[in-house]
Amino acid sequence: MDDARALATAMARSGIAADLMVIDDLARSPGAVPDAPVYIIAEPQGVATAAAWRAIARPASLRRTIVWGPNVTAGDIVALDNLGIGYVTKAGPRLDPLLRLIGVIDADYLAASRMRVTEAKAVAHSVFQATAAAFEMFGSMPTFDRDFYAGLSQDFSRQVETTPLYLLIDAISRNQDTTIQHCSLVTTVAVAFASHLGLSGREVSRLFTAAFFHDIGKSAIPKSVIDKPGRLTEDETRLMRSHVTVGHEILSRYPETAGEVAEVALHHHEMLDGSGYPQGLRGTEISDLIRIVTICDIFAALIERRSYKEPLPAREAYDIIVGMGPKLDQDLVGAFESVAFSVA
Ligand SMILES: [Fe+2]
Ligand SMILES: [Fe+2]
Predict the structure, then answer these.
(1) pLDDT tens digits, residue range 58-91?
(2) Domain CATH number, residue 139
(3) 10, 127, 203, 270: which could join 281 in a potential S-S bond, CB 3.0 to 4.6 Å?
């Protein structure tokens, strides 16, 4: 599984979308093998796994399979060929041989993936320009530092250029304009709050990333549920709530977002009194970073227009947050007042 994770990360860095699947899981639910342009088995040798794969794969899928392993021997290559898998490459830090093989199996797929990367980077870039412009919203705050805010956004934009983070932004922005706007607003509010609290540059930039990706799991929720004008049914609510675990899973795949940032995605709907989800954490189990994002998230959701509600004025939104009492960190809520009131 570690080989597979390393490969998925390396491929994302090369701009190729990759999903991780466990063959045992697929074998348990027949019909679950998804259509894919190329299948890659990432294992030290790959022969045993390839045999299990052969038992469930369609012949066309088998012809689109590559084994990628660090210890593949000449004998393994013969054994794999006997199983109907003629594409084998030695695993290493350089992906060129693997990408060449993918190009042989499906040149269109490789070209389309590269095009997607270019487009995704352009989207990421425009999202950050919008986030930087939104900082002006806090122009009246005494702690507002235009250059600092613009610098943060540029740093993040650079990070997005050189890491797979652009794939995450692309994932949300492709099907959900409401979510991408929400994430931008939460980020802006969180950064304004952080500089009001006097957090260090490093802490603010951590908060920037955590706030931006807190709802990444919504990329897996259908737009019809996200933008549903009426009340959600019980099943829809359950699906909607799954965005926290899905987000945690996605963010844990990348070293840039694994750990703290992924934890914020998992826990930003927890409440200090234990009434939140998914784990009903309480008090000190909830870190400061999560507490800050939670307050900014609720505030942003209240002042946004959604398909099922009008935007609230900032003061009314702040009153609602105060009214949530023991659910939120009231010291932080008190400090948040001047941030909330500086929103025009
Ligand atoms: Fe959320
Ligand atoms: Fe949110």
Answers:
(1) 888 888 999 988 888 888 888 898 888 889 888 8
(2) 1.10.3210.10
(3) 270
